[in-house]
């Protein structure tokens, strides 16, 4: 069976995204539609419909295509002369390079810096930053407060900042096509971040987020995000999603749920022989196994309960039964794990509890004892 070649973000953008955007931008410049969003959607749909027909035909460039080619060449020439990125160039990543970037700096107390650092290092987006880049982000963060009922971001608006929550709770609502009422998607709590999708993919806000308590956040501007965080965040997210795709338990999740789970998962490594959880202790984490093998033991490590491998999970019994750990789990080899605290798991992954309950049959004979 042939294996699909691994494509980097840069290769995918250069080979798949950029040609489409070049042609789209050229047609927008030529047509100058009032409703750019609506016109672009229709154009993309028409291009998709006509793609198969075009692939079957060999023909010279039409006058329309020649005009597009001329505009594309002109746009590329203008882009070379620009020192700052246009919105479309931002997608390609050819501009706003670090050497030309001057980050904003907002004076803060040592206490504020420590609070921000503690919060942002809980988010996967910032975990891959080196010390220099982390300090730039800390300097650019701006503390912002909101009152009950304030809309921090609104669906459909342009997004210029992402937010990390320090205090208070917010609710996320999304209006779906064909429905008048907004749907409550989730509640955000301290330590979580939101608003990054509009910055990552240069898209309008995907949802509305409202404060339901007095809220304190730390906001990061688009320019700092694009130059310091963006590509490491995309790479980290892709790596995390690739890992989650291997976990059988999570196969029923949609892309949005998988993105949310990425934000709360943390990684840890253990050497062979180390105990990850111990029988009788109070547990507050569920674990997903990325690499390695583990063994679960019952009754003071005298009787083996289960063998775990990459793609399995453990620790869910304490979550489901609200009891101390039922067994000791020991690393048989060196292992790489992802873990999520119970509160976050239940809040984000409620439907998966039924899957977990069904799968407790693997321990059934031990639970009956």
Automatic annotation (TrEMBL):
3',5'-cyclic AMP 1 binds at residues 196, 205. One of its GO terms (molecular function) is cAMP-dependent protein kinase inhibitor activity. The keyword Phosphoprotein applies. Coiled coil: none annotated. Keywords: cAMP, cAMP-binding, Kinase, Nucleotide-binding, Phosphoprotein, Repeat, Transferase. PROSITE patterns: CNMP_BINDING_1 (PS00888), CNMP_BINDING_2 (PS00889), CNMP_BINDING_3 (PS50042). GO terms for cellular component: cAMP-dependent protein kinase complex; cytosol. Belongs to the cAMP-dependent kinase regulatory chain family. This is cAMP-dependent protein kinase regulatory subunit. It comes from Paramecium tetraurelia.
């Amino acid at each position: 069976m042939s294996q699909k070649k691994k494509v980097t973000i840069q290769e995918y953008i250069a080979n798949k995204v950029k040609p489409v955007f070049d042609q789209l931008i050229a047609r927008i410049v030529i047509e100058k539609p009032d409703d750019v969003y609506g016109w672009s959607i229709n154009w993309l749909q028409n291009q998709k419909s006509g793609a198969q027909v075009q692939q079957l035909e060999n023909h010279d460039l039409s006058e329309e295509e020649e005009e597009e080619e001329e505009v594309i060449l002109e746009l590329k020439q203008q882009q070379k002369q620009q020192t700052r990125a246009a919105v479309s160039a931002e997608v390609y990543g050819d501009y706003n390079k670090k050497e030309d970037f001057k980050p904003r700096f907002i004076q803060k107390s040592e206490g504020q810096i420590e609070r921000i650092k503690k919060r942002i290092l809980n988010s996967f987006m910032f975990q891959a930053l080196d010390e220099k880049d982390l300090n730039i982000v800390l300097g650019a963060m701006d503390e912002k407060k909101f009152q009950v009922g304030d809309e921090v971001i609104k669906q459909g608006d342009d997004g210029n900042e992402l937010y990390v929550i320090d205090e208070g709770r917010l609710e996320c609502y999304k209006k779906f096509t064909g429905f008048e009422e907004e749907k409550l998607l989730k509640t955000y709590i301290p330590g979580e971040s939101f608003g990054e999708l509009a910055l990552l993919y240069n898209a309008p806000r995907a949802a509305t987020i409202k404060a339901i308590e007095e809220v304190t956040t730390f906001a990061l501007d688009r320019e700092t995000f694009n130059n310091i965080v963006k590509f490491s965040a995309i790479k980290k997210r892709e790596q995390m999603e690739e890992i989650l795709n291997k976990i059988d338990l999570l196969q029923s999740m949609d892309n949005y749920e998988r993105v949310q789970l990425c934000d709360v998962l943390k990684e840890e490594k253990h050497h062979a022989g180390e105990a990850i959880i111990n029988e009788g202790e109070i547990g507050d984490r569920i674990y997903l196994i990325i690499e390695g093998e583990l063994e679960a033991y019952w009754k003071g490590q005298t009787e083996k309960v289960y063998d775990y491998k990459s793609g399995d999970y453990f620790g869910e019994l304490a979550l489901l039964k609200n009891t101390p750990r039922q067994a000791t789990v020991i690393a048989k080899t060196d292992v790489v794990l992802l873990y999520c605290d119970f509160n976050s798991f239940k809040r984000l992954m409620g439907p998966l509890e039924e899957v977990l309950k069904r799968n407790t049959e693997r321990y059934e004979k031990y639970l009956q004892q």
